[in-house]
Design brief:
76% helix, single chain, mainly alpha, 5 helices, Serine Threonine Protein Phosphatase 5, Tetratricopeptide repeat
Length: 85
């Protein structure tokens, strides 16, 4: 595992959300699935960033497109929810 990814995951786990964002955002942009999932979680909860359903879904979709099964399942649920609201 990339050292920056490890540091970003640890920062997230410790609640250092702004540091996690700083470390993980470039990796997420490069297609790192774990970083994309964490960014989705940050935006969902508004931890270290302004809460954004749009950014949450963006990163969740990127992770799903890159093969994350849990992200794919969550995207499907969110889309179904949108259809029924």
């Amino acid at each position: 595992m990339d050292a920056t990814l490890t540091q970003g995951v640890r920062a997230f786990q410790r609640g250092h959300y702004e540091e996690a964002l700083r470390l993980l955002a470039p990796l997420a942009e490069q297609g790192e699935v774990r970083a994309q999932v964490i960014l989705a979680r940050l935006y969902y909860a508004g931890n270290g960033v302004e809460q954004s359903d749009e950014r949450h879904l963006y990163w969740l979709e990127r992770a799903a497109d890159n093969g994350d099964k849990a992200a794919r399942s969550r995207v499907k649920k969110l889309r179904r929810k949108e259809l029924h609201s």
